[in-house]
Structure formats: C-alpha cells, structure tokens
Amino acid sequence: MRGLRLPGGQELPVLGQGTWGMGERRAQRAAEVAALRHGLDLGLGLIDTAEMYGSGGAEEVVGAAIAGRRDEVFLVSKVYPHNAGRRDAVAACERSLRRLGTDHLDLYLLHWRGSTPLAETLDAFEQLRADGKVRHFGVSNFGPGDMSELFESELGRRSATNQVLYNLTRRGIELDLLPWCREQGLPVMAYSPIEQGRLLGEPALRRVAERHSVTPAQVAIAWVLAQDGVCAIPKAATVAHVEQNRAALDIELSAADLAELDAGFPAPPHPVPLEIL
Asked: What residue segments make up the domains of the chain, in order of their start?
C-alpha cells in the first residue's frame, strides 16, 4: 500500500475505507463488519468514521470489525462541531473510543467548523494527544480561509490533514485549497470519490473504464489517487465492493486518459466556495 507522509512523519495509507451510512440498520451490520474486515485482509488499513455516522452506530461497526486487529488499522474519527469545546471534545472522544473498543485514535478531526473558537478545540485536541488518546489531530471541510486561520497558531500548524469532498465533479479545491495544502506538506483526504455514484454514467468516465476493462467507479477512484498529496476513503458495505475499490489502486491512468477526464470533467474557471456533502 502506498502512503502519504503526515507532517509528524507517520504514513497515511493512500486508499482506505469510509463508513458514512454504516451502522444505521442492524440487519446490515454483519455484512458491514465483514466488508471492513475483508478490506483489512486486502491491506486497506485506513478506516474513517465519525460520531455522527449512524449516531455512533458506524463506530460500533468499526469496533466489531477491528476487534483483535487494531495494530493493522490507521483509525480516524471525527467530532461534531457542537461537541468541540474544551471539555466536550474530550468527552466525545472518550465516547468514540468506547464504541470503537480501542484506547486511542490515530487521527481525530473536527468534522466541520462551528461556533466554538478554534483555539478551544485545538486545546482539547492537544490534551487528548498528550494523554495518548489520539496520535494526530486535524480538520474536515475547512476551506482556504479556515485553513489560513487554523495555521495562525502553533497548535493549528500541528494539524495532520484536511478531509474534504473531492472527485471528478468537485474540483474546486484544485484552484486554491489543494495547492495551499501541498505547500504546507499537508495531505488531503478525499471523501465521496465517486460522488455517491452520481458521476458513473458520464461518457468520458465510461470510455476510459472500457479501455482498461474496469468499472467507471474504479476509474473515478484511480483518478483521485493519481493526484499528488491526496488519499481516498470510498465506502464499501459488501465484500465484492471492497475488492473492486482495492483493484482501483492498480489502475495506471495514461496521459491520454487523464486528458480525456479533464475534458469531460473540467475544473471550474475560478475559485468557488468549498463544497460539502
């Protein structure tokens, strides 16, 4: 598995497993756990979740999947903005740890920006790091202005990543946020790399997929992985889907493929507000 180097030196796997939508239906729990465990078998050790997903249910699914295999996992969770206060963030993290059945997170993120001052959230994150409950911390859904403000403080500059929406149809970050993160040596974690399936019927994507004898979804993931400094966390709730996602890592898009995808999915001509799902 290729990796991206975090500012602190640890490597972040370039392809992982998302869990948005998991833990919402008990009838699907066994299949979701099996999918995540199979992903670990295939080397997909990066698992991303959040206290928001399934109101903690996704974290419980992840906890069941990683039981006995914690050392194989780079584990990420996220805190609600309304739980991002000094004491509240510590308590929220401890609840997440209990649901996940672990004593630490590899990465803890502020899910999106709320009304709590950044300094207060960062103080909580630093306390969690000092106590060994998180190894790294960072943010999610932060635009260029938010990131600039974050990096005004010493603690903010210790942030390890920014998790944002990025795929062939959501390329606005290429004009400002992505170059800024690259300059700072800050990896970007791309969620929804296939736009929840909505981009899969686009002609350019289908043509490239046909040339490689793969699915449009695999090409969409491979395109994200071809971007410098970016990792992807597609969700897969079945074993078969996990295998398809893993195979995307082996697709080598040619210059002609990339040019065709650029033409079919052009980046916006000017900066746009950060998009969020």
From this structure: 3-264
